């Protein structure tokens, strides 16, 4: 067997293999002999058909089996001898297999690139400055107040206002599109929530119970029937009932409804504390993303396509699971599987690059996981629940693969902390940061 290795790129090699004619012929005879023992041909008992007839009838079967055997016998032996570790199954290209002739084929394999890590200390990154925002606290209180509002029937002479919830019957028609006609009875509509076609909810404002009205709209971009975009639509609406929202006062009684607070002052203080933690966690997470990107920028790296595809598959699956829990789908976001992979391919490639560079840093700086590191991670996963902590420990200590994945995750986190410990970090306003990243 002759083997020649071509370097196509830092992550691709072509292993050219030539199997001598004697070995090919020997495999062909073995396969034909095996076929002859089992072949069932009309006029012959199993195992008694003449070899000449076997060769005429089963040449394609023989060829497939011989090629499979040769691949199994040679490819991984050749890879081992040349110390090539593929990250995915080889792609095989071959000549036509013929008796009496050498068999030539090639195995295209992807490998991990050699990483010569440089310039990873003193990386310059920007960090968003945390700014307390009382307006966001008031907005959240307003949302809580809205959620606890009581709906009170409006009087006969009262008119619909933004924020009211109405019950209505309506018929919807579109100019030139008779199949777009639809009707609804006892539809519950929150006026001003912008859940329906623009212009419809605005048209409800000022109506009284029992009133019928035509509301004219223009079908917007993104309408489910693209050819109807820009066309005129008409809602014929009969308002059956309207209810005003009666908001509770933001007082101590309001605060007590959330269980652990006696006063609004306590509730506001807790909300400020929660927002600060949420925002500082977000800012720190984004800083970690930037330091990894800075490492990537300092160490350009080609990565195997197969690893990028796996990362994309994982990202897509995670997104689908999150959306499903919210009763949504990627189609509702205007995407399909192929569109997602195309749009997020670069992000997936950077995710792979970052992981490989961080693992290279772990090796270079001898970053290890101590027992206390693992104990802290168990506590983090258990989220302060003592019963859960025991189950978490038992799971990881009894599951070798899961524990190895967790150890790799901790090492990666420690590698990021190592980068941050020597980084030049400049705090900037959020608006400046967004402008720079845009």
TrEMBL record:
Uppermost EC category: isomerase
Keyword annotations from UniProtKB, A to Z: Cell cycle, Cell division, Chaperone, Cytoplasm, Isomerase, Rotamase
Location in the cell: Cytoplasm
Keyword tRNA-binding included in the entry's annotation: no
Domain PPIase FKBP-type: 163-223
Record field: catalytic activity: [protein]-peptidylproline (omega=180) = [protein]-peptidylproline (omega=0)
Pfam families: FKBP_C (PF00254), Trigger_C (PF05698), Trigger_N (PF05697)
Tree of life domain: Bacteria
InterPro entries registered for this protein in UniProt: PPIase_dom_sf, PPIase_FKBP_dom, Trig_fac, Trigger_fac_C, Trigger_fac_C_sf, Trigger_fac_ribosome-bd_bac, Trigger_fac_ribosome-bd_sf, Trigger_fact/SurA_dom_sf
GO molecular function terms attached to this record: peptidyl-prolyl cis-trans isomerase activity
Family as reported in the entry's similarity comment: Belongs to the FKBP-type PPIase family. Tig subfamily.
Record function comment: Involved in protein export. Acts as a chaperone by maintaining the newly synthesized protein in an open conformation. Functions as a peptidyl-prolyl cis-trans isomerase.
PANTHER family attached to this UniProt entry: TRIGGER FACTOR CHAPERONE AND PEPTIDYL-PROLYL CIS/TRANS ISOMERASE (PTHR30560), TRIGGER FACTOR-LIKE PROTEIN TIG, CHLOROPLASTIC (PTHR30560:SF3)
UniProt domain comment: Consists of 3 domains; the N-terminus binds the ribosome, the middle domain has PPIase activity, while the C-terminus has intrinsic chaperone activity on its own.
NCBIfam families membership: tig
Name this polypeptide is given: Trigger factor
Gene behind this protein: tig
């Amino acid at each position: 067997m002759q083997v020649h290795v071509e370097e196509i790129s830092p992550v691709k090699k072509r292993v050219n293999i030539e199997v001598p004619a004697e070995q090919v012929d020997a495999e062909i005879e073995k396969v034909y002999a095996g076929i002859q023992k089992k072949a069932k041909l009309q006029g012959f008992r199993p195992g008694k058909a003449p070899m000449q007839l076997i060769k005429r009838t089963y040449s394609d079967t023989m060829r497939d089996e011989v090629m499979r055997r040769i691949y199994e016998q040679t490819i991984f032996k050749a890879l081992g001898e040349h110390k090539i570790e593929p990250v995915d199954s080889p792609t095989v290209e071959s000549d036509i297999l013929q008796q009496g002739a050498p068999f030539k084929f090639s195995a295209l394999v992807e490998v991990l690139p050699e990483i010569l890590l440089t310039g990873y200390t003193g990386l310059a990154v920007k960090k968003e400055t945390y700014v307390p925002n009382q307006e966001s606290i008031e907005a959240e209180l307003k949302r809580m107040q809205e959620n606890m509002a009581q709906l009170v029937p409006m009087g006969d002479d009262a008119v619909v206002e933004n924020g009211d919830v109405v019950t209505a019957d309506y018929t919807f028609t579109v100019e030139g599109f008779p199949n777009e006609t639809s009707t609804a009875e006892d539809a519950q509509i929150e006026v001003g929530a912008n859940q329906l076609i623009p212009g419809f909810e605005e048209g409800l404002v000022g109506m009284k119970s029992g009133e019928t009205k035509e509301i004219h709209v223009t079908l917007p971009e993104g309408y489910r029937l693209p050819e109807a975009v820009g066309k005129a639509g008409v809602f014929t609406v009969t308002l059956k009932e309207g209810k005003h929202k009666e908001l509770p006062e933001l007082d101590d009684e309001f605060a007590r409804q959330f269980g652990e607070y006696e006063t609004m002052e306590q509730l506001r203080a807790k909300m400020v504390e929660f927002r600060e933690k949420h925002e500082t966690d977000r800012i720190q997470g984004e800083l970690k993303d930037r330091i990894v990107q800075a490492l990537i920028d300092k160490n350009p790296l080609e990565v195997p396509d197969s690893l990028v595809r796996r990362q994309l598959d994982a990202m897509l699956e995670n997104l689908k699971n999150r959306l499903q829990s919210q009763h949504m789908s990627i189609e509702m976001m205007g995407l399909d599987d192929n569109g997602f992979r195309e749009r997020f391919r670069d992000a997936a490639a950077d995710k792979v690059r970052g992981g490989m560079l961080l693992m290279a840093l772990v090796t270079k700086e001898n970053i290890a996981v101590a027992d206390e590191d693992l104990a802290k991670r168990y506590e983090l996963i258990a989220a302060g629940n003592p019963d859960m902590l025991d189950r978490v420990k038992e799971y990881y200590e009894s599951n070798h693969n899961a524990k190895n994945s967790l150890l790799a995750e901790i090492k990666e986190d420690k590698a990021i902390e190592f980068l941050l410990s020597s980084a030049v970090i400049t705090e900037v306003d959020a608006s400046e940061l967004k402008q720079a990243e845009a």
